[in-house]
């Protein structure tokens, strides 16, 4: 029996991360998923192992890395976890700013540093799920957008650094995607199905990159719905 490839997906219990994980197990990957609350995930599969870790806490990340069961065999690392608080900058609490910085920048950098030696040995891949917000001026999304711009640049730097070692680095930049990302925001995708992406569509793009390995690399892809429409949530 062929030994499954090992993947690590952050934010794997829901949304885009869960769709990516489901796609990977269908292709025979053993997926280790990181989630702050793994008990909320209803998806089960013999190749899917959800592990608890708060990626906004660097001590928990250190503990996770030390105890990761198959670090030498990992061939795919996907940075997907994220959250956003949108508000005028003076209204963002220090706790919310620190949480976003830790989750969007510190955690991906720490995990990448810890796993890169193995990824080099296994000629693996690193994927970053960015955001179109990181390419645009985003009123009230100032901290979130700036952090996404930062992780975009980190991905581009890694592509240049690691390609000579056979490690493929991809930056995926989705536009409006219908997930619970918007549950704490005052706006959300429009009802028009042509105005938003679905998590499985992001997974399909990644599937094409991973499965159809033709010896060349697509370092960056932006995915957008046909139409641009957002709506304000009704105030209670």
From TrEMBL:
It comes from the Bacteria. InterPro entries: NAD(P)-bd_dom_sf, SDR, SDR_fam. Pfam families: adh_short. It comes from Leptospira noumeaensis. This is SDR family oxidoreductase. PANTHER family: 3-OXOACYL-(ACYL-CARRIER-PROTEIN) REDUCTASE, 3-OXOACYL-[ACYL-CARRIER-PROTEIN] REDUCTASE FABG. Belongs to the short-chain dehydrogenases/reductases (SDR) family. SUPFAM superfamilies: NAD(P)-binding Rossmann-fold domains.
């Amino acid at each position: 029996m062929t030994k499954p490839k090992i993947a690590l997906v952050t934010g794997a219990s829901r949304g885009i991360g869960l769709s990516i994980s489901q796609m990977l197990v269908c292709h025979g990957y053993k997926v280790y998923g990181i989630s702050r609350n793994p008990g909320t995930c209803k998806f089960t599969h013999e190749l899917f192992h959800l592990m608890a870790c708060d990626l906004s806490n660097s001590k928990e990340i250190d503990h996770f890395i030390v105890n990761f069961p198959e670090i030498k065999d990992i061939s795919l690392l996907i940075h997907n976890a994220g959250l956003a608080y949108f508000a005028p900058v003076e209204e963002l609490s220090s706790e919310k700013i620190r949480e976003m910085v830790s989750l969007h920048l510190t955690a991906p950098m720490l995990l990448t540093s810890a796993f890169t030696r193995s990824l080099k040995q296994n000629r693996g891949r690193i994927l970053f799920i960015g955001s179109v917000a990181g390419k645009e001026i985003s009123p009230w999304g100032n901290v979130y957008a700036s952090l996404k711009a930062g992780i975009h640049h980190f991905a581009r730097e890694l592509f240049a650094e690691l390609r000579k070692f056979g490690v493929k680095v991809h930056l995926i930049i989705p536009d409006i995607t219908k997930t619970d990302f918007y549950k704490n925001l005052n706006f959300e995708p429009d009802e028009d199905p042509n105005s938003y992406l679905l998590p499985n569509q992001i997974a399909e793009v990644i599937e094409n990159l991973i499965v159809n390995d033709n010896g060349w690399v697509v370092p960056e892809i932006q995915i957008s719905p046909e139409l641009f429409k957002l709506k304000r949530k009704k105030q209670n």
